[in-house]
Amino acid sequence: MPASLSDVARLVQVSISTVSRALHRPEMVDAETRARIQAAVDALGYVPQGVGRALVSRQTRTVGAVIAQIGASAFAKTIEALRARLGQAGYTLLLAQPQQDDPVQNDPLRALIERGIDAAVLLGGPCPDSWRELVRKSRMPLVTIWADAASAQDGDVGFDNYLAGRQAAEHLLSLGHRDFAMISGVRQHNERAARRYLGVLETVAAAGGRLAREHVIETEYGFATGYAAAQQLLAHAGRFSAIVCGNDYLAIGVLAALREHGVQVPGDVSVIGFNDTEFSPFAGPPLTTVALPSADIGQRAAEALLQALKHQGKVPPPIMLPTALVARASTGRPGQAA
Fold first, then answer.
1. Binning pLDDT at 50, 70 and 90, where does residue 52 land?
2. Is residue 113 in some structural domain?
3. Is 89 exposed, middle or buried (0-12, 13-18, 19+ CB in 10 A)?
4. According to DSSP H, which parts of 186-266 are helical?
5. Quick one: 280 and 210 in the same domain?
6. What are the distances in angstroms from CA 129 to CA 105, 122, 133, 135, 304?
7. Highest-confidence range of 45-59, 115-129, 167-181, 227-241, by mean pLDDT?
8. Could you report how far apart the first and last alpha carbons of the chain are, in Å?
């Protein structure tokens, strides 16, 4: 349960009204007392709560989630499943997004806590320690979605990105491919992209294949960026018979660039993505991809939160869900062009 005004007052050994005045009418409280109150606020992680917290139950039946990107992304399916399951249990899901130019600032999470949320959801990846500390001090359950198996903690729900990368590489290797290219998400601040790339790289190397450094491009996820990256690969005129794309958005852009250059798929080059997005079966040709458990992550995250809210905030051990190869017409044996 989040720290309350009375918790701060008890720690400082002053009245609740004194704490309230120090926070909202500081000119009415002497400097020494204000400093002690601020120290207690920082130590407890106290955030002024919305009116819902004034209820005797101190529950608002709301869950807050900080998600960097929702719109056209695989996260949308997760959020919808999370919202639906929480809704069935009578909870409302509130969403907040960090500023694009400052993804680690505290404001979106703090804004949710000020609303009086009962539990928090964060997106796995470059989550600042200050966010986790703020949730811990607020004494509320925390679940992290889209977490990676390599760094999983209690309350994390996600999958093994390394294994997903290995599945993609093993499929192409089984078809006879030995020369690879990869268009990856930016790996520096994205554990999922980094682990996916490593799974592909090490699997290809172990089988005697080649993924040359000049055939690896990092870019933001999107149709246009995939198209531009494929143009860059083709301009090098290097030898590769398969392109592994960090997600299906990149892969669709790659297919467009290859088509524009008269490169046959899969006869000249095979293409594979990740996510199994709704449009993937309707690409030209239909896209082979590794299906990620987007909706299941939302469902299981909601279940974990509901159990934690029922049992004094204790979240379950990490939940890592399976991924699966979905083979379609964009991959085939190399050198089979008509």
1. very low
2. yes
3. middle
4. 191-206, 223-236, 248-260
5. yes
6. 11, 12, 6, 10, 21
7. 167-181
8. 66
Per residue in 292-312, is it b (16+ CB within 10 Å) or e — as a string? bbbbbbbbbbbbbbbebbeee
Cα diameter, the chain: 85
Q: Rounded to the nearest 10 degrees, how much is the dihedral formed by the CA atoms of 24, 30, 32, 38?
A: 0
- What are the tokens at 188? 């520096």
Give whole-number Cα distances, 336 to 136, 174, 186, in Å. 57, 15, 32
| Number of folded domains that form the chain | 3
Give 6's contacts (C-beta < 8 A, 6+ positions apart). 16
- The position carrying tokens 């991924």 is 323
With beta carbons less than 8 A apart as the criterion, state whether 292 and 275 touch.
yes
What is d(CA 41, CA 191) in angstroms, rounded to the nearest whole number?
33
Domain with residue 97: its CATH number is 3.40.50.2300
CA distance 13 to 15: 7
Alpha helices in 122-190 (DSSP H): 129-138, 161-174
What's the one-letter identity of residue 259? R
- Check whether residue 279 and residue 182 sit in a common domain: yes
pTM for this model (two decimals): 0.81
